[in-house]
Amino acid sequence: MTQPVSELDYLKMSAWQKFCYKFVSFFKKIPMGFLNFFKVTIPALAIKFWLDVKQCFVNVGKAAKYGDWKTRTSFVLMGFSQLARKQFLRGFTYLIFELLFVLYLGLFGWKYLAMFGTLGEHTRGEFLNPVTGIYEYTEGDNSLLILLYGLLTILFIFAFAYAWYQNIKSAYSTQLVEEAKQPLATAKEDMRSFVNEQYHKTLLTVPLVGLSIFTIFPIIFMIFVAFTNYDMAHMPPASLFTWVGFENFIAVLGGGIATSSSFAYTFGRILLWTVVWAFFATFTNYILGMIVAILINKKGIRFKKLWRTILIMTIAVPQFVSLLLMSQMFADEGIINILLKQWGIIDSHIPFLTDGNWAKATIIIVNIWIGIPYTMLICTGILMNIPEDLYESARMDGAGPVKAYMKITLPYMLHVTTPYLISQFIGNLNNFNVIYLLTAGAPLSLNLANGAGETDLLITWLYKLTMDKQSYGIASVISILMFIITAIVSLIVYNRSGSVKNEEDFM
Amino acid sequence: MMKKRVISLLACGALAVGATAGLTACGDKGITIWGPAEQQQMLKEMVASFLEENPDFKYEINLGVVSEADAYANLSKDVAASADVFAFANDQLMNLKTIGGLARLSDEAAAKSAAENDANSVEATKVDGVQYAYPYASDNGFFMYYDKSVISADQAKTLEDIMDACEAAGKYFIFDIDNSWYVGSFLYGAGGDYTINWNGSLVGSIDCDFDAKSPDGDYTYGEIGGNALIKLHKHKNFVNGDDNTITKYLGDEGFGACVSGTWKGAEISTKLGENYAATKLPTYHSELTNKDYQIKSFSGFKFYGVNASSKHLAEAHQIAAYLSGEKMQEKRFDTFGIGPSNKVVAAKDKVKSNVALAALLEQAPHAKIQDSLPPSYWSNLEAFGTDIHGDKITDANLKEKITALTEKLKSNT
């Protein structure tokens, strides 16, 4: 089954063979996809980037070669060309921007940028104040602030370079317009363009700035932290941290996989459980939720609204409240164990949350209880959307309920909900709440290292590493790895899903 | 069309205003003190009396809720933005010093504090011989509470008699086996030890001999202690549980005895009334060596620390010294029964007659002074206790588990 088969051969296969064929070819395509990504997509992007950069230099070169003295002065004094040609609004905007940038760099950014390579050299000092007899502290370098403002300054330099390039381009094009004896855009026209042809820029500025400050910049910062030894022993303001290259990555990924006290072993174990958990949490909820929705939707079921309302009640209670209650209920001395003992079903308590394997099963089951109502709500809407005539014709052709489900309901549901499934899967990979509130990663075990417990997901372990151990460097590495894993999974599954490939089906 | 654009522009503007609203600057906030939630009222009274005695104190004093156990967790988030004066348990001293959270005491204040408080507590405030905190309580240890009507004072001496008495009366012995603070007591009792060699305030190396042979026979310290824990855990009148479980068993009348600290004293004494009693931890009999071992507890202290990043260091030191002074320690004992470290207060009759503190004193010769412990200590001993509780550690694999535990403790992972 390794060779691609012709359509005729494919149709001759039995259902089981078809399934196997599809299954194998799905996984066979993945390495090809990666190869394509590295052989085609990345080179294409690189070439495009190179061409863009080249074009920039060509434009600047042109302006230098053919520009008049006004344009050439713009190389140093931004906005001069526009000012000299009486485009005051544009000219002053560029000029003020340049002034602000120089002020920022000179007064603030420069000192952080200068220390960016070492992240600071002077630690805080302690000295006795002879007058008061009190020990006081000199302010040393703060590695965290150096990293933060250093990065910020670098980003500003990029922004300045871009603005400078725009300034040259605009200066030269203004010169060309003037030489062609065409009228130059007035300030009023410039302003008006921001609500007309450049309206997209006006609208996107605020979201873009917000996104950069609150999302993109912190992510870049976090990535840089992964290459430092920022941890409890190197914590500003008392001490400095510095660059360590790939040391943290080696600690997490390399070496000592076989020994239980190594980072790599623990990382592997936790990663495995994270994937297992995400799989079960996603598909148990999906399948059971769909079954519940179908049951309630069935003709002849009475009090439909009542059943739905009861299920939705679980949503009305805040999730963390029900989770904390559940963790009390399932405790060794909790109500469930006490009741089971009183009824004589068990002699000693069941370790629902204190034994690794029991705890894993309990978590998945509690998650079903919490998750089914959501799936049921979503499925109810979609189920009502399936055209009734499909079922009617199926019945006429002699299809039973199971056949109708397999051939109509399930394909339709999968087609519509694949993106939902993917987002659920990714969400479950990072499902902090359920794990942290139910077990907080417990039970701990001597088989794992660095404070990890049997039910810890990568995300809850990450929380422990940062909040209890202050191992920020290592934690950054783990979050980068988590991002890579989730990104790869979602890209592969999403691009290969029917929802994307056959968008028009079922329309 | 134009109107729509104006509206969307306004929406964008509103977004921008919302984004900047959170970035308001903040001025001098005076001096902030952190203390546990249940002591806020007392702390308020203490601050009031401080201001009364120092009428020309020029800063505003604010209170924040952070318990002694969480001081490090909160300070480590942002030292500069944390309280100027804070209460903490002594096991966080080294970590707090490492992150620059503790200011050194002036020589004068250090001398005064050393003269007034018990020597052990003062010793525990030092890093490399330099004092970094003000001791105010020496009661951070554990011992045993029991019900006199179930267990006689004589029976309370050995674990075996306690369990027999509990079984006879249908009551329970409550011990937190999967809590790293308590579970080590059996291993230390057998003769094992765990010592950190400090390199300044950083962990240099760790000595741990849980896997070393005991002089009493062909067994390691860890095996002797672990074997006793396994035996205790199997007993049907044993309950693994924390302070909440103790409360529950007190309510259900299933309480025979428990291991806890002074903070539980008031509650147990009101519940048991005349039958309330407390004493040192019992001995346990090892089946392996056929000998009795005294269970050891931790003894710890509570300190006031001054944040080295404080903008008003002198005033912060003044407040910390006041809050840990003799008068305030007595007030703390009167209000909450907190055991003083001040020698004058500790010698008072009312302190000496306190049942829980007397038990703590009785335990003192069998207590290990609790050093600052790294996270690896807490997680690995909790794992050890959890594995015993989950029957993952049995007599058959005890030896290898002890070896694994010791290795992890030594390598600080």
Account of the protein in words:
The complex is a heterodimer of chains A (507) and B (413). Chain A has 507 residues and is mainly α. Chain A has three domains: 1-63, no CATH class; 67-245; 260-501, MetI-like fold, CATH 1.10.3720.10. Chain A has helices at residues 7-12, 15-66, 69-73, 80-84, 88-114, 143-179, 187-193, 199-225, 247-253, 263-297, 304-316, 319-329, 335-342, 356-385, 388-396, 401-429, 432-438, 458-467, 472-496, 498-501; strands at residues 125-129, 134-138. Chain A has a two-stranded antiparallel ribbon. The longest helix of chain A is centred in the first third of the chain and has 52 residues, at 15-66. The model of chain A has no long low-confidence stretch (mean pLDDT 86). Helices cover 44% and strands 20% of the residues of chain B. In chain B, the strands form five sheets. In chain B, strands 1, 2, 3, 6, 16 and 17 form a six-stranded mixed beta sheet that branches. The radius of gyration of chain B is 25 Å and the shape is globular. Chain B starts with a helix and ends with a helix. In chain B, helix 8 packs across helix 17 and helix 17 (375-389) packs antiparallel against helix 18 (398-411). Chains A and B meet through strand 2 and helix 8 of A and helix 1, helix 4, helix 12, helix 17 and helix 18 of B.
Describe this structure in a few short sentences.
With 507 residues, chain A is mainly α. Chain A has helices at 7-12, 15-66, 69-73, 80-84, 88-114, 143-179, 187-193, 199-225, 247-253, 263-297, 304-316, 319-329, 335-342, 356-385, 388-396, 401-429, 432-438, 458-467, 472-496, 498-501; strands spanning 125-129, 134-138. A two-stranded antiparallel sheet of chain A has the order 1-2.
CATH class of the largest domain in chain A: Mainly Alpha
Helix content of chain A: 55-70%
Contiguous runs where pLDDT drops below 50 for at least 5 residues of chain A: none
How many helices of chain B in DSSP terms? 18
Q: What's the count of strands of chain B?
A: 17
- The first-to-last residue Cα distance of chain A is 34 Å
Strand content of chain A: under 5%
Please give the CATH architecture of the largest domain in chain A: Orthogonal Bundle
Main sheet of chain A, how many strands, which sense, barrel?
Answer: 2 strands, antiparallel
- Helix content range of the residues of chain B, please? 40-55%
CATH third-tier fold name of the largest domain in chain A = MetI-like fold
Oligomeric state of the chains in view: heterodimer
pLDDT averaged over residues of chain B: 87
